[in-house]
Amino acid sequence: MEQKFVIIGGKSFEGEIKVKGAKNAALKIFPVALMTQEPIRVSNMPEIEDCQRAQEMLEALGHEIKKVKPGVVDIRYKSKRCVNLPAELVNKFRASIMFVGPLLATCGEVYFPHPGGCVIGAGTRPIDMFLGGFEKMGAKVEISENHYRLSAKKLKGAQIFFHKVTVTGTESLMTTACLAEGVTILKNCAMEPEIPALADFLNSIGAKIEGAGTPTIKITGVKKLEGGEYKIIPDRIEAGTFAMMAAAANSGHTLIKDCNPEHLEALWVLFDKIGVNYKLGKDNISIFPSKKLISCDATTHEYPGFATDLQSAYTVLMTQTKGASLIHETIYDRRLLFTDMLTQMGANIIMADPHRVVVNGPTKLYGRKLVSPDLRAGMALVMAALIAQGKTEINNIYQIERGYEKLDERMCALGADIKKINN
Ligand code: EPZ
Questions:
Q1: CA-based, 20 to 30 A from 251: which of 152, 158, 166, 403?
Q2: Can you tell me whether residue 131 is helix, strand or coil?
Q3: What are the strands of the beta sheet with 3-8, ordered from one edge?
Q4: Do both 313 and 271 map to the same domain?
């Protein structure tokens, strides 16, 4: 059933909000269950659509998932059927690609369609670096009508250089190499915090990984992996987004809890330049009303630079700050297209080219009927609706609920007027 958010903007935005476990950490843990016959317990797991899909994928591959309590699941090896990845699930989220390597490493074969997810990259989010890496490790790759068949008797360690920094590429090949024969060296790796977190978990169940979180990662293959527990790290994108929401609303004191401010250093540099009144604790962020918010340019960059996943919320914040700001999205080709909906709401945004917009602020925003194009842009539309005058309807909220647990309930707790209704 299609659902939408109906939001009446201009309400206060203050109080406490707890950050959930990171979607982009959780989605990389589930595939690890395919590489061991021992049970795995995942805790602090966000109850979001993408995690639901990842669990359905594991069940389709012959594992059993037991919900211990909200946010905690036990994954048990039942009878792994080395089957093809179910197309209807692969098409739902990009991280489905993470299931390919473990099946290749343990079953010697895997068959899958091109992965789905957000429509933010040019065309359909390439996977050439995954395929290239698996080939280097000895796999045969056959491609036909947007489907891939990979086969390998035994994966061997290899030297792999990523021509572009790729987060899931780094994670996928780091994970797969754990069961390859010999040593794998990955170069020009992504350094997002989810990667050392994944490596820590893999090492805790018997893998031998060094250097995760740096550009060069060394994996020494082992014969088998054990079982274990994994507590998902806080979602830095949720934390940063809520901080920008509170700054844009500029109403009362908002306390963002259960997060790791160290994962957002690039945002704090921007907050200092903008003049946001904030205070960082060990695992929390406080946002207070600010006297004056000044516009500031921002360029997205791989971690530890300013995260592309924070760009859409930042663009909304820049509609409320004084002056002009140039926002340069360097990672994806389509991630600024949502700004035409902000313009419909009254924002003053000029698209210099598909990778750059100039935002002039502050401008009043007005409620509109909108459609969420993808996960982070959808959340940015919620943020804009909360500060706009009047009523906003946001359709296609599956794209938002892929990554944000109980968003309407959590926003209401901060004073927002937001309802989820059936279309
Ligand atoms: C991860 O996507 C995240 N998704 C994205 O978050 C995030 O925006 C992105 O990293 C960058 O931080 C997950 O972790 C599930 P990439 P990923 O591979 O790994 C190109 C969200 O909103 N590329 O780092 O798919 C690619 O086109 C999502 O939570 C190739 O050319 O991103 C892009 O231009 C959105 N060939 C660049 O690399 C490949 O084989 C970076 O992509 C792989 C990627």
A1: 403
A2: helix
A3: 369-371, 391-395, 3-8, 417-422
A4: yes
Protein residue closest via CA to atom 6 of ligand 1: 309
pTM here is 0.96
> Chain centroid to CA 383: how far?
18
Spacing, Cα 234 to ligand 1 middle (Å)? 19
The domain spanning residue 250 has which CATH number? 3.65.10.10
Catalytic residue among 51, 118, 259, 296: 118
The answer, yes or no, to whether any atom of ligand 1 lies below 6 A from the CB of 35, is: no
Are 62 and 84 found together in one domain?
yes
CA distances from 112 to 77, 86, 87, 145, 386 (A): 21, 7, 7, 11, 40
Q: How far is CA 215 from the centre of its chain?
A: 20
Q: What is the pLDDT of residues 340-396, one digit of tens each?
A: 999 999 999 999 999 999 999 999 999 999 999 999 999 999 999 999 999 999 999
Domains identified in the chain, total number = 2
Q: Is the CB of 127 under 6 A from ligand 1?
A: yes
Ligand 1 in reach of 311 Cβ (< 6 A):
no
pLDDT digits (tens, 9 = 90+) for 236-280: 999 999 999 999 999 999 999 999 999 999 999 999 999 999 999
